[in-house]
């Protein structure tokens, strides 16, 4: 330790490996032999069984800073399992970010048409395990790319974009337009913005077309570059202020294409002798831009081209194979990784750089907080070492986290030095900071042993702090356990802690579901105690939707298996699972699954979609929901011819009754047809009586009542027939009275008609109505006496009282 403390600026090893100082470039490297440990967390293993340990050479390099006070580290994620025979340069490669899958297209340059020579599309996990493969039988591919939801985009020369899932199952396709079809595709890029996943195309006419969201396809044709006669030497898609633009280089000129114009731009601080642009790279967050010229000059600045960050003069002038950014979120330091056939260079603010000699062809995958490096045999990660890790593991570091780690190690050795280290931290009142530093550094470590060492130190330090909140420690332990489980090479998702927090656990669960790793996803939900609706229920629903696609079992077996697994789990919708079964052509299975759906409102729409209308009507009636019954009945009305529709309702009295109620208010003529079909003369008579009141002309009203009279006779309802007949007679008399006296009598009752006649002094006409309609004597006497009293015609009242004996007594006469 004494010798180590005397060497400032070096980093110490955390796992007892040999440090060597490289004489050529002053690169400090670590080369050791360890055993590859298969981390399977018991119940968290998702159904995968541990493999026996395998020896491998793990190479970890920690380098002097390319920026002041910043170091970079490169370590191996996996020894690749794919056993490729081809070099990566002979394949078309596309790797999804956030530790996503890798797509390879082999034999794409061959022109033979024989089936054996067809290109082969393969999809691997990040650890090189084959997920799916298929021979490519469609058009010539120009570019592969991944969407944010890990669907594979295959961009063809004719502008058609085919979309496949992780298992090479075709999902859908779309076209980039007729202009692209006519001029063909020269180059294509897949990019990601806040709008979604986009595709940009360079056509044979040297024009750019793009869409910012393939799920809401809106094609944009970018402005033309004046005088452009050949493809640009390099180009990139930028996203600024929610606007997507294209930056391209032609020789020493840069052009910026927005929605309406093409403008020439010059990066600030660019050397006049920089030369022609050969390569450009946009950072993961689209905020930074790097340019490489044919003189080996590298310019780094903001993507807005308004500020220069730094520059670097490289001795290599040949065009790089790839150039990507390597930077951490919220870090003020920037670095760019450039590769050639057998060389990798990391450059930043410093005048020096880190260089690697590559043993084999490699492919760079930019990430949120670093760069993944793929080759035939290994998968590595290059990143800027976080500040917390630098402070703890730097040789001779006096940071509180470093002292706490040493104190815990000495405590395990039962050494009194543990108390000395601990007192030193407590005297400076930095113990809470030391604990937080160890917790934070544990998240950035990839090796579980180092994670445990740091967490033990944090746990040790917590014991000496009053009321230290345990949430951060517990949360970090949970996060690391989840991360270690998904980093297992059989799972193959090498997320870093920073990526995991940006991605969120919900998206991680979605990705596990897409990989059909249902047991692991469920156990993570249970371990993190997520709500059933957000966690287990949703995953089980996805599992069931996948289960219905398996056609090697009968409908009865699949339905029973799904019900046994799901039961009455909250948040499960059997109707959604049944809908997936129906989409897969398994109608009978869908019907069986709907039997487990407790909500009729979810059953009925799918049954109607499957054209099981009668069953849908039965389910709607069983639910007791009249709105649902009405919805089914109206659907049947539009779907079936009139006769079949009426016959269907005959077998469902409840539905027929509700439909009649509907027709009474909405479709009167249909109601008449229903009564005619049933020979329901009584209701037909009522219908005609009701219809008579909507007639404005007296002839129409009398005609409607005459129809009602006929129907009542057929129904043998003598009372209704007699009442209707009297109404017809009254209407005719009222019409004559109205014509004779020029006063309104229509629509009055018999009582009011007689009363008005008496009030107007037409006593003979009143007597005529009294006789024709056989008004009872008592009613007529009361009616006439009341009318004469209201009129004040006492003489007529006296005359009337003496006409014959009063049927209502003489008290009235005295009154």
UniProtKB/TrEMBL annotation:
One Pfam family cited in the UniProt record for this chain: Vps16_N
UniProt domain Vps16 C-terminal: residue ranges: 572-811
Gene Ontology cellular component list: CORVET complex; HOPS complex; late endosome membrane; lysosomal membrane
Ranges in coiled-coil conformation: 404-431
Principal location listed in the UniProt entry: membrane
UniProt topology in membrane: Peripheral membrane protein
GO biological process terms held by the UniProt record: endosomal transport; intracellular protein transport; vacuole fusion, non-autophagic
Subcellular location: Late endosome membrane; Lysosome membrane
Domain of life: Eukaryota
Domain Vps16 N-terminal: 73-475
GO molecular function, one term: actin binding
Family matches, as InterPro entries: VPS16 (IPR016534), Vps16_C (IPR006925), Vps16_C_sf (IPR038132), Vps16_N (IPR006926)
Signal peptide: none
Keyword annotations from UniProtKB, A to Z: Coiled coil, Endosome, Lysosome, Membrane, Protein transport, Transport
Job of this protein: Plays a role in vesicle-mediated protein trafficking to lysosomal compartments including the endocytic membrane transport and autophagic pathways. Believed to act as a core component of the putative HOPS and CORVET endosomal tethering complexes.
Subunit structure: Core component of at least two putative endosomal tethering complexes, the homotypic fusion and vacuole protein sorting (HOPS) complex and the class C core vacuole/endosome tethering (CORVET) complex. Their common core is composed of the class C Vps proteins VPS11, VPS16, VPS18 and VPS33A, which in HOPS further associates with VPS39 and VPS41 and in CORVET with VPS8 and TGFBRAP1. Interacts with RAB5C. Interacts with STX17, MON1B. Associates with adapter protein complex 3 (AP-3) and clathrin:AP-3 complexes.
PANTHER family named among the record's database cross-references: VACUOLAR PROTEIN SORTING VPS16, VACUOLAR PROTEIN SORTING-ASSOCIATED PROTEIN 16 HOMOLOG
Family (UniProt): Belongs to the VPS16 family.
Protein name: Vacuolar protein sorting-associated protein 16 homolog
Species of origin: Falco tinnunculus
